[in-house]
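Consider a protein example.
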Amino acid sequence: MKGEGAWPARRGPQGTDSEYLAGLRGRSPALALDPPALHTPPRRGPRTPGLRRTQPGLSKSCRGAFQSPRPSPKSGQADGASEDSLHLDIQKLKEKRDLLDKEITQLISEGYSVNELEDHISLLHEYNDIKDVGQMLLGKLAVIRGVTTKELYPEFGLDMND
């Protein structure tokens, strides 16, 4: 076996190993590792034109020019008008801030504390999370039984308005 490797050359549908490897020169290295049969794309059935989401081509909404949702300043509008508008917005925000400050002072004078209100809000969030889980479980049970969740409310003593 002079001049040959320790392994005899294989002969398959693509020819000998060396012929196969020579045909792969310049291709992806991954192809040299796996036989070509494994690289063929899966066959798909015929496409059904009725299942398309949109008609081919551009839709009517895509044919026109782009319109920004942000209004562009009018060319005839003076800078002073937009400045007046900004001052008016600032004034409205200051009035809202003053109103909220009065509301906070009133709540404090009635005996409410910020910590107590934060605790109350935290408990409300926890209640809502628990209620959401309960609603999810009722929904799953309704699906299993083949009924609506509304039909399960009396069985568990729940009020529809809760």
Observations:
- The longest helix spans residues 114-145.
- The mean pLDDT is 76.
- The CA atoms of residues 142 and 152 lie 7 Å apart.
